[in-house]
Amino acid sequence: MPYIVRIEHPVPSYEGWKQAFDADPIDREQSGVTRYRIVRDTVDPSYVQIDLEFEGREEAEAFHVRLQELWERVSVVHDPAARVVEVVESHTYRPGRAED
Fold first, then answer.
1. Under a CB-based contact definition with an 8 Å cutoff, are residues 48 and 40 in contact?
2. What is the CATH topology of the domain spanning 3-86?
């Protein structure tokens, strides 16, 4: 099962934050990220959550360290929180298909 670096924080401007995210200053793909997902709070769209998925725990933990170092140098995010989590179970339901 994959490991995820789960990040969440408020942003002063989603568009400005997204530009910084898209600039990819620590090279997500080269760092082992296999997939990411960005979600926004429906009540407060300036609050973002990001899941960065990795195949291995070591890659996720190394990325977490690099992320903390990045946050010390930039001011795009305020009060960020991040942790490495392990997916222990996952199931995908298909809409419109009856389960037996």
1. yes
2. Alpha-Beta Plaits (3.30.70)
Cα distances (Å, whole numbers) of residue 59 to 3, 14, 36, 44, 72 = 9, 27, 14, 31, 20
Q: In 71-84, which positions are buried (b, 16+ CB within 10 angstroms) versus exposed (e)? A: beeeebbeebebeb
The DSSP annotation for 61-74 comes to HHHHHHHHHHHHH-
pTM: predicted TM-score of the whole model, two decimal places: 0.83
Q: Give yes or no for residue 3 having a pLDDT over 60.
A: yes
Phi and psi at 81, nearest 5°, equal -130, 140
What integer is the mean pLDDT of 67-91? Answer: 80
